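Re: the 331-residue chain
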Amino acid sequence: MSSTSSTSSTSATSSMSATSLSSSSLPRDLKKFTPRDAHVFAGKLVLCAAVSAGSAVWILTHDVWTALAGQFVLGVMFAHAVELQHQMLHGTGIRTPRWARCVGTALGAPMLVSYTRYRVLHLRHHRFLGTDQDTEFFRYSAGDALTLTAMGASALDVRRWAAALRDVVCAVWPGRSYDSGMNRRNRARIQGEYRCMLAAGVALAGVSVAAERPLVVTLWLIPLVFAEPVHFLIELPEHVLCDRTSPDVFRNTRTIRGSRFSCWLTNGNNFHVEHHLRMAVPINKLGAVHGEVAGRLENYCVSYPRFYRTVLAHAWRTQWARRDGAPRAHP
């Protein structure tokens, strides 16, 4: 299918889905960003900061092995922070663009995720999902070939880290280009955000030297070993084992009901069909949108454990099918 026909199909399907949802007459307060939504998001930021600070204190006041518990929690907060950053990409966290970019850059910094770059590519993803123009910021190999090997590689995502570190270090040179279709203003913003990350890394290294403690390792590198696989597990359910060739969001995206804890940790990413249908609805209101579309969901799971069991079973079958030279297993 050509990109032109794909795009027009996407627009038609998205329009049809939006019309269907609009006809369900969502309450007006669900459709707009209110002061209460801002307060809910501020509370999420404060909780994330508090847990992160508490984890850092635990790490600094305990021996190497006991500190691992704090480093695991800090890594989970790194992943959670990227999900909070995701909400801000859609303007439903902090309304003021300048403050949104500042806070968004800080949230993504531990995992070297540029706010502007993520925003541009992610909004393209929303626009072109189901076509060959789709652009995921986190391009996990497990999304293309779901095997145990691919899942392991995606959980560590060494290639992303190599590319991200290169972009951060090379940000000191002017004129860097990022992805295709980036305008000059966005390129400058991305470079500025990477420079801020580099400055933060140098500052942490300086404090490490002054304090004669390996803070870069204990407060960043070791937590990252936990953060990357946790973030992969958060992102994986969105579209895997769905029909990515279809522009119909009910076919190419998944929703997981989940628990209150998983909804908090993923920052509402479990309601992913609902998010793609109405991406301007604040994350904390997606549960209400779910009630409007629950009967139409084609890819739905009641819990994350059940989803992961299904995915691991499929990856196991595919892994052995390829090893034996059999045709690739289908979901």
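Confidence is low (pLDDT under 50) at residues 1-20.
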